[in-house]
Every structure is written in C-alpha cells, then in structure tokens.
Amino acid sequence: MKTIGEVAAELGIEAHVLRHWEDVGALTVRRDGNGYRVYDDNAVEQARTVLKLRRVGLSLPEVTAAMAPTKSAAQAVVEAKIAELESEVVQRQRAITFLRHTAECRHRYLDDCPDCATFVRET
C-alpha cells in the first residue's frame, strides 16, 4: 500500500493530478478507515496507465473511455485517436515541406513564387 505522495513521486507528477484523475473518474482509489487514499498495486498500475494515455495525447474523457470495461468501447476511442494523430502527422509534414521550400526559395517575396502560391492555396 502506498500513499498519494509516494505514488505521485513514483510517477513524477503532483499529488493534485492524482486527485483530479480520481475526481473525473479516470482513476479509482480505495480509502482507509480515516478517509486517506491508499494505492494498492492495481491502483498504481491504473494511475500509470492514465499517465501513459495522457502522454500520448488522450484527453481525460478519452482516457476514461479507453479504460472502459468493454473492449469495443475502448478500441473505438483508441482508433479515433490514432486517426486524429495520423491526420496531424500529415498536416505537420505538409508544414515542414512548405517551410523548407520558403527557406530555400530563390524569390525575394513568397508572392512572386508560383510554388509558394501553390502551397498557400492548399488546405
């Protein structure tokens, strides 16, 4: 059994983050007879999972849904996040391509460059 401070230190986060996760339903923690949170191995592992899901970009509502008891519900959230991240990768790659071109463009003004104009018109 661990205290909230011990778990927070182990995970490298603040104790208030663990409290917030519990408040929004992303984390379930037992209380002892005095009302203090007690983290058993399962609760620590659950907190570790929440942290990992947050670090890969899931919001707390998405984390809660991804940890749903039914596999299909969890998979739907994860699949949606994958699609979102893949779209972001495409957008970032386009941004890099555009910026590389502008850095190397021989035209003084980007408006004078037909390639820059093409990039600007892309959505």
UniProtKB/TrEMBL annotation:
Gene3D superfamilies for the chain: 1.10.1660.10
InterPro entries: DNA-bd_dom_put_sf (IPR009061), MerR-type_HTH_dom (IPR000551), MerR_fam (IPR047057)
Annotated CDD domains: HTH_MerR-like
Residue stretches making up the HTH merR-type domain: 1-69
Keywords: DNA-binding, Repressor, Transcription, Transcription regulation
PANTHER family (UniProt xref): MERR-FAMILY TRANSCRIPTIONAL REGULATOR (PTHR30204:SF69), REDOX-CYCLING DRUG-SENSING TRANSCRIPTIONAL ACTIVATOR SOXR (PTHR30204)
The protein, known as: MerR family transcriptional regulator
Organism this protein belongs to: Actinomadura nitritigenes
